[in-house]
Amino acid sequence: MEKNSFLINLSCSSCGKIFSSDQVQTYCVDCNTPLMVNYDLSSIIGIVDRDQLACRPRGMWRWHELLPVKDPANIVSLGEGDTPLLRLRNISQTIGVKNLFLKEEGLNPTGSFKARGLACAVSKARELGIRKVVLPSAGNAGGALAAYAARAGMDALIYMPSSSPHANIFECNITGARVELVNGLIDTAGKFANQKATHDGWFNTATFKEPYRVEGKKIMGYEIAESMGWRLPDVIIYPTGGGTGLVGMWKAFQELKTLGWLEDERMPRLVAVQADGCAPVVKAYETDADSCEPWVNAHTIAAGLCVPKSFADRLILKNIRDSRGCAVGVSDEEINDWQGLLARMEGIFACPEGAATLAGLVKLIQQGSVTNDENVVIFNTASGNKYII
Amino acid sequence: MEKNSFLINLSCSSCGKIFSSDQVQTYCVDCNTPLMVNYDLSSIIGIVDRDQLACRPRGMWRWHELLPVKDPANIVSLGEGDTPLLRLRNISQTIGVKNLFLKEEGLNPTGSFKARGLACAVSKARELGIRKVVLPSAGNAGGALAAYAARAGMDALIYMPSSSPHANIFECNITGARVELVNGLIDTAGKFANQKATHDGWFNTATFKEPYRVEGKKIMGYEIAESMGWRLPDVIIYPTGGGTGLVGMWKAFQELKTLGWLEDERMPRLVAVQADGCAPVVKAYETDADSCEPWVNAHTIAAGLCVPKSFADRLILKNIRDSRGCAVGVSDEEINDWQGLLARMEGIFACPEGAATLAGLVKLIQQGSVTNDENVVIFNTASGNKYII
Question: Looking at the complex, does the CB of residue B58 fall below 8 Å from at least one CB of chain A?
Answer without folding.
Answer: yes
